[in-house]
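Consortium newsletter contribution from the modelling node. Members have asked for a concrete example of what our holo predictions look like. Here is one, prepared for the magnesium ion complex that several groups have been discussing at recent meetings.
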Amino acid sequence: MTAGNAMLGNGQIGSVLVANHIDKRFEGIAALSDVSVHLEPGELVALIGPNGAGKTTLFNCLSGVLRPNSGQILLKGRDLSGLAAHERARLGLARTFQRMELFGSLTVREHLFVAHRAQRRGASLWRDLTGRSRPTPQEREQCDAVLELVGLGDHADRPAHSLTLGTGRVVELARALVCDPELLFLDEPSSGLDHRETEHMGTVLEQVRAERGTTILLCEHDVAFVERLASRTYVLDCGKLIAEGPTAEALASPQVRTAYLGAGAA
Amino acid sequence: MAGEILEYAVRGVPIGCVFALMAVGLVLTYKTSGVFNLAFAAQAYTSAVVFYEVRKEHEWPLLPAALLAVVVVAPLIGVILDRFLYRYQRTAGSLAKLITSLGLLVAIPEIVRLIFGSGSKKNPPALWWVKRTDDFLWPQGSRFVLDAGQIATLAFTAIAVTGLAIMFSRGGIGLRMRAVVESPRLVQLQGIDASRVSLASWMLSSLLAGLAGVLIAPLFAQLNSLDFFTLLVAAIAACVIGSLTNIVATFIGGIGLGILQAELAGFLPTDSILATGLRPGLPFLVLFGLLLFRRSARTSHEVTDPLSGVDPPPPPPAASLRPSWMTMGTRVFAVTVAVLGLVLALFVLDEFWLSVVTSGVVLAVVLLSIVLTTGVGGTISLSQAAFAAIGAFTTAQLTTNFNLSVLVAMVAGALVAAAVGAVLSLPIIRLAGIYPALATLAFALMFENVLAPLSWVSGGATPLTVPRPLVGPIDFAGNRAFLLLSVGILAVLSVAVIMIRQGTTGRFLDAIRESEPAASAVGINPIRPRLVAFVAGAGVAGFGGGLVASFNGQANYAANFTFYLGLVWLVLVITAGFRSVQAAIISGIFFYVLPQLLDRLFRWPGNYLTSNPEVSGVTKSVLDFIEPEWSLGVAFILFGFGALTYAKHPEGIIEAQTTKSIRKVLGWIDKARGKGPTPASEQLVTQVGGGR
Ligand SMILES: Nc1ncnc2c1ncn2[C@@H]1O[C@H](COP(=O)(O)OP(=O)(O)OP(=O)(O)O)[C@@H](O)[C@H]1O
Ligand SMILES: [Mg+2]
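And here is the predicted structure:
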């Protein structure tokens, strides 16, 4: 048993997110069984595990895309069960997707405007009809600040369908950041990126954490990337948490080696 | 009591069999080729007409007549559709395929009428060895007596079921078909020849549709393609009972519906509102109830459309391609054309053409609702004509019974239509994939068959009159004044639609359409904006309906608002480009002008012959052959076939053409400047690996 195991399921009072005993089954297959995680303010925590371990499923349960079969999720002490994805988003929970989900026909800047507007003001037919739906100076300023932060300034007016995968992933990140989230879920932000783009993504994430203090849960396959960024790591295999703790310790634990390299390697 | 229940049940089984046959055909093609082929209604009608012609008009014996109508013509249509149409849409999204089938649903009945004439076809014969259905009754004297039509239905359904059972269990193509129906993904992996399976299932399901058409025909006093649409709703309800996957459940569901209908017919007192309303409305109610409670209808297309590809990303809007000077230029040009057109209409056209153009402008107001609901809101709605009718009836009732001013009554009509839309949208908006289209189809047909004939809705058999507006001293009774009024209204509503499309609501809807998960991840409620667009669309349709009624002087359902007309409008706007306001306006005018132009064209040979009596031989017979009455049918066929372009140009042909011209002009400019690509045309290069 690693030291971290003692903490399983024990979120503290000040935790940004506490998820206790999440179970999720798909037609009898247990995709998650009794998974508990907690995230403290300003932390960057990694979630790793082999393919099909249930990482994306956990993200979907936390963000409201899927309903877990049982378990409890608290965002800053508030119970999220029964809330739809968009309601959770407005409470400060932002995410990116493993399979990139961009609004193809919108430009990069429009992505940010839409996200910003959805968070704060919403749509009103009356405002649309009276011509008061253009971005306000304040909205422009905040969107430009995010574009600046992630280094997308040059691409701001290009439609999303013309972007490369690397830029697209940064746009997803920017779209999540403009929501000014308490908590950010990143589902494999570096997958499909080349070395240079991965490097850039890492730098951006470090900056985001430094400048905004956003709490981040990062799902990744790239171990070097995780080692560089994450202070703590959860390891998921076949729907179960098999290790948890400071990144170096978690990665070195025998269960993790078994899961990744097969039984013989441990 | 028990005896009666049984008696009615026996009476319901034959019609239930017809529902079931049709439904099984729908499921077969849906699961093997991803097409939910609403055009089966038209194919059923085709076979019924062919059978009628050869059996009744040409007095063929039963066997050759049945073979021709059911075994030759019906599968042949299936082969044509598969080989020449759907084969090229295999990777298209489910929506594109549905829209193709809507186009066929419009075009096929008109083609049939062109070929066999539009004369009424009274007392369709049964698929049996007798002339009239009651020439053969069995068992004689029993309370369970069945006529030739019902017996034929039972017999041929039994044959069809046995055939299907043998085919599906004996191996070969039948077994492969069943494998595809039951588990399409698995099958794709195992490399079953999808093309052959698709062809076979199209032939088989078209045969079933043709059989259903011939079998149900004797129930109608005369053959009318509209009656076959109603059959479609029952079949769709049966399909939904089987979750669009399970053939056995679908079949049993179809028969169950038939029995339920017969029980209601038997037990409800014939003169009660329940009997007149509930019985014909039953399939619609069942379909609606099922859609409400089926969770699978609400999950995304992954589940409901096993075979359809993801809809490809729409091409960049033409407007985003052109430099701003060109945008300004186009706008100036468009306004100039519109103003010139209006001046021309007001001062040059004679009364006849003036009224044609005004009809078009008035219709364009209704068509704007399609842009709002479908283009901006992303919900395929087949009930916009019903909303227009609601607006028209409200306007008529209020002006007739309460002496309300027409314009005020029109606004009230818009509000009532919007309210009905709001109630309807609550279940519909949550549905995914093709289900909203099916649900609105059910509503529209229920409105047509159950609500529209009621006197508190429409005023009964004679349409209520509606005056033209009189605003203070300004009287819009004259056609020129009315045209000006309609153009004004159209302009205001067009601007409103554009404001919504470009405003926050429109942006949110763009986001939801492009990626619903991402939209909700940034906090957009994925239901609300679509609901708003649907309700606003219903309101616009209602207002347009009032305007149509006022222009025509009456709220005439049969002439202006039928489900079939609504279908034609929808395919027309979709073809032209359902996101664009110009497309709606052009479609409205085109809808009335094209038949008139065709009429002139088809009249020409006759006139030519009259003035040149010396023409003879082949030329004469060819010229004689052409009938001016064809114009409306040919126009509708063209409108229907237009929808087939959707799969290639989902943005609409107007938009596609604009994009093409812009590219060309930009190309010329580059060339004239004699240098490499300018930033303007560089934007067109789409980089690999980006977006969806
Ligand atoms: N909607 C679904 N229906 C049925 N099974 C599902 C569904 N989504 C995921 N699964 C199953 O749940 C398990 C976990 O999948 P998940 O996508 O969460 O894995 P993952 O850890 O994100 O893997 P990867 O590293 O490949 O992204 C897998 O076995 C997967 O097949
Ligand atoms: Mg994953």
